[in-house]
Design brief:
Layout (H helix, E strand, L loop, with lengths): L1 H17 L8 H6 L1 H11 L9 H22 L3
């Protein structure tokens, strides 16, 4: 019984570490693919920030950079 529990724990841990096959994208990817960025952020908002994956962090950073560029870019026009 202990061997089965250990095996299940190892399998579960492997899936958790692999992110179930999700590819990690960088900030530039999310800036170029804003619809996907929005979808990732919607999923990330369901979690505590402490538990965010690298994709969550990168999508959030891309969103911040886009908003800053829009804000500061529009303020220079006036």
């Amino acid at each position: 019984m202990k061997k089965i529990l250990i095996a299940l724990s190892l399998i579960t841990g492997a899936f958790a570490l692999s992110g179930c096959g999700d590819k990690t994208h960088d900030v530039d990817y999310f800036k170029a693919n804003q619809e996907e960025m929005k979808q990732v952020l919607a999923e990330c908002q369901k979690q505590s920030r402490e538990n965010w994956s690298d994709n969550c962090k990168n999508a959030n950073e891309a969103d911040v950079q886009i908003k800053n560029a829009n804000f500061f870019g529009s303020s220079k026009k006036g």
